[in-house]
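In response to the reviewer comment on reproducibility (Comment 2.3), we provide here a single inverse folding case reported in full, input and output, so that an independent group could reproduce the run without further information from us. The structure tokens appear first.
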């Protein structure tokens, strides 16, 4: 079937008119969804949409503190669920395996799991410390310089205790002393 140039222009105009007739509620829902996808490659931060501060909003306002409290609590809950899964797995797998190779493999896997859980336990302590800082309203400020850490950095690393500048200096001095010790 052939269509003339006039017909194709008319059909594209009809589509444009239909798009512009959307109700405000539908378009705002669509916009929210597209904003959600556009935020940091569409990733949520432990189930929470990244924070968008209002124009002129004070740093570490009640809303921001509540936002980071939620992120930290969600992260901690995820880690605690992993601990529970590991304990259940270890109880099931703790049986006596007759084959020496299977037993060695099982012990190796359990050792790896325990080391991972130990790192997560240390991370949980850091999360608890961050939650304490949220409670006493010192969260979001560098422990060395007292400067703002920044929302973007805190969303990338919610347990951060130093601003980027101080963290970089710290890492440089660590590398410097590590390199000097090697010589």
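Designed residues, in position order:
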């Amino acid at each position: 079937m052939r269509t003339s140039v006039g017909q194709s222009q008319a059909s594209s105009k009809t589509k444009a008119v239909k798009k512009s007739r959307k109700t405000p509620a539908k378009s705002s829902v669509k916009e929210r969804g597209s904003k959600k996808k556009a935020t940091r490659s569409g990733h949520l931060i432990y189930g929470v949409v990244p924070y968008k501060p209002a124009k002129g909003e004070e740093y570490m306002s009640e809303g921001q503190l509540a936002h980071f409290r939620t992120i930290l609590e969600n992260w901690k809950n995820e880690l605690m669920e992993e601990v529970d899964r590991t304990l259940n797995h270890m109880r099931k797998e703790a049986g006596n395996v007759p084959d020496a190779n299977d037993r060695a493999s099982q012990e190796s896997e359990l050792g790896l799991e325990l080391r991972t859980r130990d790192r997560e336990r240390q991370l949980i302590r850091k999360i608890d410390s961050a939650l304490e800082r949220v409670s006493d309203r010192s969260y979001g400020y560098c422990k060395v310089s007292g400067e703002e850490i920044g929302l973007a950095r805190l969303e990338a690393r919610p347990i951060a205790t130093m601003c980027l500048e101080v963290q970089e200096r710290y890492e440089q001095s660590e590398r410097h002393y590590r390199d000097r010790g090697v010589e």
